[in-house]
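Narrative of activities, Objective 1.

The group set out to show that a structural description can be obtained from nothing but a protein's sequence at a throughput compatible with the screening campaign. Below is one input-output pair from the validation batch, recorded exactly as produced.
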Amino acid sequence: MHISKRLLSVFETVLLAVSTPFLLFPHVAPTATLLALLGLVVVWSVYWIVERHPLPSTPMNGALLLWGVAVVVGIAVTAFPELTLPKATGLILGLAVWRYLVVMIQGQNDFRWALVGSAAVGLGIMGLGAFSARWYYKVPGLQNLVTVLPPQLLSLPEAPQAGVSTNQLAGVVAFYLPVALAAVLFFVERWGSRTAEPRRCGKAALGFLASVAGVTAVGGLLILTQSRSGWVGGLVGVGALLFAWGLFLPQRWGRYLSLGLVVTVIAVGAILYWNGKLAQIAALWDAAGGVKTELIGTVTLSGRVEIWSRALYAVQDFPFTGCGLGTFREVIWSLYPLFTISPGHDIAHAHNIFLQTAVDVGLPGLLAYLALLSLAGVIGVRMARRSAGERALGLGIVAGLMALHIYGLTDALAPGSKPALVFWIALGLLAARGRSTDWRDQGKDRLTG
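Output recorded for this entry:
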């Protein structure tokens, strides 16, 4: 690595770390936010001059170009710049993190450190969310657990006065649940390997215990959020991970395991249907529960259906540009007022990630978003055909993205929202593997060796 590029990498690392708070909370210090944006532009421009290309080649570059154009259009057409600003800086931060991971990960050692850093960021987001949330009683049977939780301990800048929404927290937690479980499966497979050395077996045992602790903590936090969308997303993500894991195991019994899982899910679904339990489960979305406030309320399934209809109206009226990034909470009351939800209710998003994306940046932006998800799935599957470490990473992240978007069918981490940073971290890790010269190789590597 040339000395100029090495210094540039160090400077970009420091700049990104310093800029992150101002891009997450742009209204707190507007001047610092502007300087952070200018700093990123300067670093990226210098990198372009030094490397003679703006970005390394990855399978996601084309989709990201279309996404970037759609985002610029979504910013340009906004009628509420004060609402667009935090979403715009949040998306710029997400793209900056994606780019940083792709540029900086040059080898296996870099990748290990990137995994550690990504895990630390996830723990930080979940920890801040847990300490900044105002816990409400929403689901029968969990009241005793919720009452022993500490009150809101932190108040984040620009957060609602009533605290961080536990539904938003649930989206992040649902993403990390299958990721943590993938680590457990990897260490189990490594521990049971016949060729494993005693020293590596000891490390695998410690890794297994740490991963089990992580799954327990993440799963417990997901339950406490009482987010029904998060619960379903987490369960589907875990099921998808287990199915894919068995399917890609080199041993034949893995396929039988996957088939058994499918049969079990069908059998349980049939039993729940015939006993009328599915109707009771579905009724959870119709039972609002909780405590309504001016800023944070509960939205039933019928309320979501009405919101979805208004989002569809907005997409029909603004198909190519969207209504403007982050403006749905104002546009819905100005152009498409609701009948079953009072005007005092803050509808921050469309309660569906795909509708929200189309409302924010139009159908071209939604197409780019879907392309990014498809490419992530392709890279994850190709990684799964390699070593156990690659399989854990690829399938874990893809299952996490699936959990996040199953959650996103009835809720959403809107583009540019603060917790949506985990989405760009996931894409960055996959893109970094996708740009590797050996990513098509079917042989083993030493990612976690």
